[in-house]
């Protein structure tokens, strides 16, 4: 059930949002002057989901409203895989990590006997995707150990410049959900600060977040590997270890948000059960709140999966959405399009407004 009320808790199952790259001037109400909602959220169908989002933003940004929220408290957090871009059949981070394992396997003869590397090298990948962010991070840490932070960032940037999704035959950087890009820009135009909260390696996502979503590196909260500080021949560096330091998934998401931001979000978007604690924590705050789940229902334009998926499972979240009045956005019904049709990176170069 979708509710517009004081405790505005909505579970939004979202698939595609598109970005406005210019931050419009705001009128006294806090809304973008001269930019209609239809133009700002052009890739959304005019359904209850879109109207609920717009109603909420209007409610909390209108100074005369009893539910007005000051700019400093307008925090919106977004999961990445499955919320802002695809996570099926495997997340881009996992694809990158698997390719990296094969590239450096010659340096690790022990991997022929150790799991999950033994299975990866033999092409037995059925259980790998199901290991989720924890498995992906373990593989990532091992496959990039010994690299400095700069070397790793350069490698990731180079990979994204050439890597493509095999089903859509498009670069991963083209596969941000157009409706979500539009939503990010719409929220920023209305004074919200947008954060990415992901179970993926924060260093893997940061450059990507700036390029695709207009979210700067300091507003990316993610999992981390262990680093070593050192100095060699006068050169100071941070070097990656083959160990996961912190996994930001499930209950760890609200902990990480509180540690980094120090404010409870007003808006939270996710798509899987691992995002449920983030939505619960957001919606439990005082005043109006918007909790949203992205429901993947479109196997023609993207993928359809929920309760029985091996990765990105949305089971508990659907149940809680019904009970708590969260907003569930249906990708098939609520989005006009999923990806930007001309093949360019929909959010490339979009600068954050705050």
Q: Which keywords apply here?
A:
single chain, about 350 residues, alpha/beta, Rossmann fold, 2 domains, 8-stranded mixed sheet, two-stranded antiparallel sheet, 12 helices
Could you walk me through the main structural features you see in this protein, from its secondary elements to its overall organization?
The protein contains twelve helices and ten strands. The strands form two sheets. Strands 1, 4, 5, 6, 7, 8, 9 and 10 form an eight-stranded mixed sheet that branches. A two-stranded antiparallel sheet has the order 2-3. The longest helix has 14 residues. It folds into two domains: 213 residues, Rossmann fold, CATH 3.40.50; 74 residues, no CATH class. The chain is globular. A hairpin with a 2-residue loop joins strand 5 and strand 6. It has 354 residues and is α/β, with parallel strands linked by helices. Helix content is 33%, strand content 17%.
Secondary structure layout plus pairing:
Blueprint: H1 37-40, H2 48-61, E1 75-78, H3 92-104, H4 117-122, H5 132-143, H6 149-162, E2 164-165, E3 170-171, H7 178-189, E4 193-201, H8 202-213, E5 220-232, E6 235-246, H9 252-260, E7 267-270, H10 276-283, E8 290-297, E9 304-305, H11 316-324, E10 327-330, H12 331-334
Parallel strand pairs: 1-4, 1-7, 4-5, 7-8, 8-10
Antiparallel strand pairs: 2-3, 5-6, 8-9
Helix pairs in contact: 3-5, 6-8
């Amino acid at each position: 059930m979708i509710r517009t009320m004081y405790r505005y808790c909505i579970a939004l199952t979202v698939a595609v949002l598109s970005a406005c790259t210019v931050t419009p001037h705001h009128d006294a109400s806090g809304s973008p002057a001269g930019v209609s909602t239809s133009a700002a959220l052009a890739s959304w169908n005019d359904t209850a989901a879109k109207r609920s989002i717009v109603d909420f933003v209007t409610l909390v940004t209108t100074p005369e409203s009893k539910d007005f929220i000051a700019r400093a408290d307008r925090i919106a957090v977004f999961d990445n895989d499955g919320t802002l871009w695809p996570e099926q059949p495997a997340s881009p981070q996992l694809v990158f990590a698997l390719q990296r394992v094969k590239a450096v396997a010659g340096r690790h003869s022990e991997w022929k006997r150790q799991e999950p590397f033994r299975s990866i090298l033999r092409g037995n990948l059925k259980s790998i995707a199901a290991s989720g962010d924890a498995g992906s991070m373990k593989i990532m840490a091992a496959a990039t150990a010994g690299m400095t932070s700069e070397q790793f960032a350069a490698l990731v940037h180079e990979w994204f410049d050439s890597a493509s999704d095999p089903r859509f035959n498009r670069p991963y950087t083209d596969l941000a959900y157009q409706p979500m890009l539009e939503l990010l820009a719409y929220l920023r135009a209305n004074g919200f600060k947008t954060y990415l909260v992901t179970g993926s390696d924060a260093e893997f996502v940061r450059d990507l977040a700036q390029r695709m979503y207009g979210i700067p590196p300091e507003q990316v909260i993610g999992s981390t590997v262990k680093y070593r500080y050192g100095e060699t021949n006068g050169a100071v560096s941070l070097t990656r270890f083959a160990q996961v330091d912190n996994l930001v998934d499930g209950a760890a998401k609200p902990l990480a948000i509180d540690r980094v931001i120090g404010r409870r979000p007003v808006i939270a978007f996710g798509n899987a059960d691992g995002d449920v604690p983030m939505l619960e924590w957001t919606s439990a705050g005082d005043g109006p709140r918007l909790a949203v789940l992205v429901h993947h229902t479109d196997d023609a334009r993207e993928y359809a999966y929920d309760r029985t998926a091996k990765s990105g499972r949305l089971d508990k979240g659907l149940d809680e959405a019904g009970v708590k009045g969260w907003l569930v956005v249906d990708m098939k019904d609520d989005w006009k399009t999923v990806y930007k049709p001309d093949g360019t990176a929909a959010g490339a170069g979009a600068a954050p407004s705050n």
